Amino acid sequence: MSTLQGDLLHTVETGSISAGRRFWGHAALWLSAAWLVASFVLQASHDLGWTEIGFQTWRPVLYAYFIWAVFLCVTRVVIYGESGKKALFVLPAALFVVSMVVFPLLFALWVGFSDWNLASPTGRQFNGIDNLRHMLTDPFYLNALINMVFYTLAIVVEYAIAFGLALLLNQEIVARKFWRVTFLLPLMLSPVAVSWMVGKSMLETRFGPVARLARWLGWENPSFFGDPLTAKITIMLMDAWTFIPFMMIMLLAGLQSLSREVLEAAEVDGATKWQRFWEVIFPLMLPVSVTAVMIRIIFKLKLADIIITVTAGGPGGATDSVTSFIYREYRDRSNVGYGTLLALVYLVIIVVGMTGLMNLADRIVKRMTGRL
Amino acid sequence: MKVEIYDALMRRQASRRDILRGTASAAALMGVSTALGGLPTAAFAADDVRAQILKIPGVGKGSPTDADWQKVGELCLGPTMANVKKGEFAGVELTFMGLNNQNLHNFLFRGFLKPWEAYTGAKINWIDLAQADYNARLQQSIATGTVDFDILEMGAPFEGDTAGRGLLDEMPAWVDKQIESDDLVAYLKPPVGTWGGKKYRVTIDGDCHTFAYRKDYFGEGSVTGMAKPPKTWQEVNAATKAVMGKKDPLTGQPAYGYLDPLKGWGGFGFYFLENRATAYVKYPGDPAWLFDPDNMKPLVNNPGWVQAIQDVMDLIAAKAYPADQINADPGTTAFSQFLAGTGSMLTWWGDVGSSARTSDTSVVGDVVAFGINPGSSKVYNRKTGKWEEKYNEAPNMAYLGWGVYVTKRVSSDEKKRKAAWSAAAHLGGKDISLWTSAYPSGFQPYRQSNFNYDEWQKAGYDRAYVENYLGSNADSYNHKNAAIEPRIPGIFQYYSVAEDELAKGYAGKYKSAQETADAIAAAWEKITDQIGRDSQLKLYRASLGLS
């Protein structure tokens, strides 16, 4: 049974596609592909110094790619007619993803395994796994990774506070809408603004209101970034202040979607407030909680702006995050190859870590909700 | 003629008869075209212009505003008008990349160049960068071949990165004449600003660090107990320790001594350790103090440098700094601390001197004094490997001043090229430099004519103050043992990594000053190898004037 006979509902084109049309479709596709490959090979050879013929920049290769992409889409219809149009629903998006994600990733790999200092007159040089070796012995990177463990662990406390606030805002309290908006305000602020308003102004040691309050309370020389532990805690607090509202709003949405019947049944059965929370609400909220915590971890792993603005990683690297260290390595030292490799390794750590964490969370949720 | 134009000219005391005269009305029309009130008919009498600009806005009358910058730019248009016809650059668009530090630099340039744009017809687009982002932006543009600016505000240390790679346009002879480059102080004359014998730079700033101190901390019965301000780093440390636990005589807050910035500043923070170190390691007659000119080995871990690091560590251990000093960068020490009344001693670029009396945020204008950077009672001779007990001073010519450069992007278009150089020359003019020296601008004096104390006195400055402030600059510029920075590629990479290692050392993560210095030296060796030891050595030797 042909497509025409069996799928009339989804087919509006009835005519068959001529051999000539197919030929020209294939020809256009293969010609554009050949042009793309040829220009790539030519430019690569030119860049590697194998040939003197080539373009001044890679831009013509990019244009060849665009033309090939357009021909690829158009020829789907030319060659396959109606069924080719179906491909057009997905193909542009797929090509966009390839352009914006896959190519840059491949380029990053190419750069990451290079010795490329922007000040070097010799430019980029392939250096195998030297950057990887350097990374394993780099105390600054290791220190930043350890800091990230502490920063991530702070999410447990953030989650507890966010859950508490969500429970509070889920009650019939006075001016509930006002409080909801108020608690959301920190999230609406840019972390850089938070850095200046809180880190550089309110926590300023001489005139900042928090420092004045601390002095009034008896702390003679208040210093919020003076020693490693205090600095780390202050950064954690600023970051938490910004992002707790994010978890809070997710949890609040979860609480509002809980079935009232279940909660009322627990109440009728004589459960105490704590039992209602721990035995009913908390397990029911676990899927939402896991989602909120996972997204928060992803945000946390990217922590950089507050650190860069307020402490620049100091004192002595105590507040450095992986991202702020990479930023410094890349920006201040123009060490593009090594900086890129560090970013790639961090990406792998995040992907593997998050996958493992999600599997673990899934098991925990299943086990806990299975009791209900 | 529009009413406001007539009113403006009347305010400038131009007579109706003058206005009706062809030449005068042309000048007047040009002057008012920027709606700033027009030019006086005799605006270009040089002395008159200099006297007029020094009254904008007037010493003690608050920080200058954009309107003031535009007025100054307009009054200083004379040299431009001698070389460029009105509307000659109509249709030309230029891109200018520079800094936005303290809302100065590019902000000033915009004001200065607005009348220039109105007169020439050119349009300037701006790329504003924070100090800490500058190095990265410039290096990325160079390395990726994406130089997207025609005019560049840049320090001489980057000449190796730019001129050395053929990215700059050679300065035309008429520009050299217009900016009267003979007037530059000696150390800013070639080879600074040149590469391979060609000139590339319109100097707009002279750089050296000078020593600023509070007079009320020294003298009979003072909090330091010292009769005179310190002359050596040993005395600086002693004074810093002496004021611990005492009250600041001006503010009543806790008294503090020398303000070391302990946090990095995109590489620029390293200059402040250099201030201490040059007194110990810049041996008279030996130009090398950062690297060994024979093999490019770092000198940063020799006993002299280690002593400088140790001095800072001693003050940290004694808790002699304000709380959170570990989190204070040079911008904080100068503008949030010293000028705001915290601390009594500071080394910084000269704009602290002009800001002390003219900035709205300064409270120390009446009690501040200046000198060249402190010296040392001993100096380390790297060639003999021994300390010598003798007085040594070596002011740090940190950064060699900002300049304006024109990139090769304009070389193929003669009209655009002339426009770019004309804009650069306007910013580097002799008269405009007097104003940038006298008012908050981010720039310090850089011409011999900037040291004419009579002009400053006429402008309303206290003669004794200005002689003291400008004298400290002049003494540093003319010092025989001045420490001159090498113009080698990637110099800020060395400084940046040193800042990271120093931060670790100051936070106690290394066991000693020596270990901290060794870590910096090891990191510098890696950078040298990465950039290329041979090429670095060659350029380093050239910058020291060695064959």
Brief synopsis:
Chain A has helices at 3-6, 19-47, 59-80, 82-87, 91-112, 130-136, 139-169, 176-188, 191-202, 209-216, 228-256, 260-268, 273-301, 305-310, 322-331, 336-369; strands at residues 114-115, 125-126. By secondary structure, chain A is mostly helical.
Could you explain the architecture of this structure?
The complex is a heterodimer of chains A (372) and B (547). Chain A has 372 residues and is mostly helical. Chain A has helices at residues 3-6, 19-47, 59-80, 82-87, 91-112, 130-136, 139-169, 176-188, 191-202, 209-216, 228-256, 260-268, 273-301, 305-310, 322-331, 336-369; strands spanning 114-115, 125-126. Chain A has 2 domains: 3-89, no CATH class; 133-369, MetI-like (MetI-like fold), CATH 1.10.3720. Chain A is built from 16 helices and 2 strands. Chain A has a two-stranded antiparallel ribbon with strand order 1-2. Chain A is flat, with a radius of gyration of 29 Å. In chain B, 43% of the residues lie in helices and 10% in strands. Chain B has a 5-stranded mixed sheet. In chain B, β10 and β11 form a beta hairpin. In chain B, α5 (66-75) crosses α7 and α7 (106-120) packs across α16. The longest helix of chain B has 19 residues, at 513-531. Chain B starts with a helix and ends with a helix. The model of chain B is unreliable at 1-44 (pLDDT under 50). Classes of the chains: A mainly alpha (372), B alpha/beta (547). At the A-B interface, α15 of A face α8, α20 and α21 of B.
Which features characterize this protein?
heterodimer; A: 372 residues; mainly alpha; MetI-like fold; 2 domains; two-stranded antiparallel ribbon; 2 strands; B: 547 residues; alpha/beta; D-Maltodextrin-Binding Protein, domain 2; 3 domains; five-stranded mixed sheet; 22 helices; 14 strands; 10% strand; globular; disordered N terminus
Which helices and strands occur, and which strands form pairs?
The complex is a heterodimer of chains A (372) and B (547).
Chain A: H1 3-6, H2 19-47, H3 59-80, H4 82-87, H5 91-112, E1 114-115, E2 125-126, H6 130-136, H7 139-169, H8 176-188, H9 191-202, H10 209-216, H11 228-256, H12 260-268, H13 273-301, H14 305-310, H15 322-331, H16 336-369
Antiparallel strand pairs in A: 1-2
Chain B: H1 3-11, H2 16-20, H3 22-32, H4 46-53, H5 66-75, H6 78-83, E1 93-99, H7 106-120, E2 123-129, H8 131-143, E3 151-155, H9 159-162, H10 173-178, E4 194-195, E5 198-199, E6 201-203, E7 210-214, H11 233-242, H12 270-281, H13 303-317, H14 330-338, E8 345-348, H15 351-358, E9 368-372, E10 379-381, E11 386-388, E12 396-397, E13 402-406, H16 414-427, H17 430-438, H18 453-459, H19 463-477, E14 483-484, H20 491-506, H21 513-531, H22 533-544
Parallel strand pairs in B: 1-2, 1-3, 12-14
Antiparallel strand pairs in B: 3-13, 4-5, 6-13, 7-8, 7-9, 10-11
Helix pairs in contact in B: 4-17, 5-7, 7-16, 12-13, 13-21, 18-19, 20-21
